Amino acid sequence: MRKKIVAGNWKMNTTVAEGVELAKAVVAKSAEVPAGVGLIVATPFTHLVSVAEVVKGSRVELSAQNCADKEKGAYTGEVSVNMIKSTGATWTILGHSERRQYYGETDEKLVEKTRLALAAGLKVILCVGENLEEREAGKHFEVVKNQTEAVLFNFTAEDMKNIVVAYEPVWAIGTGKTATADQAEEIHACIRKVLAGKFGEQVAEDTTILYGGSCKPSNAKELFAQPDIDGGLIGGAALKADDFIGIALSF
Ligand code: PGA
Q1: For residue 28, how far is its CA from the centre of ligand 1 (angstroms)?
Q2: Assessment of whether the complete model's pTM goes beyond 0.85
Q3: Best residue among 125, 233, 243 to mutate for probing ligand 1, ranked by most atoms within 8 Å of CB
Q4: Dihedrals φ, ψ of 181, to 5°?
Q5: At what angle do helices 48-55 and 16-29 cross, to 10 degrees?
Q6: C-alpha–C-alpha distance, residues 81 and 89, integer Å
Q7: Dihedral over Cα of 194, 195, 196, 201: its sign
Q8: CA angle 223-44-5, nearest 5°?
Q9: Using an 8 Å Cβ cutoff, are 21 and 224 in contact?
Q10: What are the two backbone dihedrals, phi and then psi, of residue 225, each rounded to the nearest 5 degrees?
Q11: Closest atom of ligand 1 to CA, residue 216
Q12: How far apart are CA 88 and CA 40, in angstroms?
C-alpha cells in the first residue's frame, strides 16, 4: 500500500523564529492525525537546522525546497544535498513550478538534482504540472507526461521507492482556483499509467502522487477521496498549523 502524505511547502515565508513556532504548532497537533498519514514540512534552507531540533523524535519529517545541481565546491550561494542531509532533513522538493518559471530549472538540471539527492539519502518530491496556456490548449496530459518522463525515466524501480510525485497545475497555485477532483484525478491516473509503462504496475501502485494548488481544509476531502490522489503538497494553507493539520485530517 502506498503512503498517504501531506507536505507543507512554506516557500519564502517566515523568519527562523516564526518558522520554529509554526513547526512547534504542527508537531503539537500532529497526534490528531491518523498514524498512516505522513507529515512533512518543507522550510527555507535557513530554517532547517532549527526546525530539525523541533521535529526531532516526532512524526513530522523535514524537507528542503530545492538543492544544488552540483555536489560541492565553487558555486556561490548554492546549497548541496550533503549540506541539507547534515541538517537532519530527509526530503527535498524538486522541480516546483516557481523554480521552473523564475529560476531556469530545466528537466536536465532536475535529473542531476534528483540523482544527487537520492545518492545523499534524501527522498524527493518531484513536482510536475501544466500552466494555464497549456491547459487551455488541451495539452495538459502531454505536458505532465513529458515532464514526468524527462526526469523519472532516468531512474530505476528501486529509486522510485524514494520518490514522490506532486501534480501541481500552475494555474491553481496560490490562485484560490483549485483543480476539481475530477481534473486532478485524471492527471494523477495518467501519471500512474506513465510510471506503470516504465517501471511496472507494482511500482506505479506503490508510488505516492500528491495534489498541490490551493488545497485547503474545505476542499481536501473531495480531492483525497479520489483513487489516485494520495495526499497534498500545500502552500498557503501550510503556514497555519490548524489548516495544515485540518488538511491532513481529510483522508
Ligand atoms: P498553494 O501552493 O497551496 O499556495 O496553491 C501549493 C504549492 O505551490 O506547493
Answers
A1: 23
A2: yes
A3: 233
A4: -60, -35
A5: 20
A6: 10
A7: negative
A8: 25
A9: no
A10: -75, -15
A11: 3
A12: 13
Name the pLDDT band for 1 (thresholds 50, 70, 90): confident
Distances (CA, A) of 170 to 1, 127, 220: 29, 10, 18
Return the percentage of the chain with pLDDT > 70, whole number: 100
pLDDT band at 177 (very low <50, low <70, confident <90, very high): confident
Beta bridge partners of 247: none
The model's pLDDT over 183-216, given as tens digits with 9 standing for 90+, comes to 999 999 999 999 999 999 999 999 999 999 999 9
| pLDDT at 55 > cutoff 90 | yes
Q: What is the mean pLDDT of residues 58-63?
A: 98
Residue 24 to residue 54: CA distance in whole angstroms: 6
Q: Report the distance separating Cα 23 and Cα 158, nearest Å.
A: 31
Name the closest-CA residue to atom 3, ligand 1. Answer: 235
Q: Which residue has the cell 511547502?
A: 9
Q: Are 81 and 116 in contact (CB under 8 A)?
A: yes
Question: Checking DSSP bridges between strand 231-234 and strand 4-9, what pairing results, if any?
Answer: parallel
Q: What integer is the mean pLDDT of 216-230?
A: 98
CA distances (Å), origin 108, targets 48, 99, 100, 224: 26, 13, 11, 31
C-alpha separations of 194 from 80, 96, 150, 165 in Å? 30, 20, 11, 12
| Residues pairing with 4 in the sheet | 37
Asked if 34 contacts 67 with a C-beta cutoff of 8 angstroms, the reply is no
Sign for the pseudo-dihedral over CA of 189, 194, 195, 199: positive
Cα separation values, 242 from 24, 31, 47, 59, Å: 12, 13, 20, 17
* Residue located via cell numbers 538543492: 67
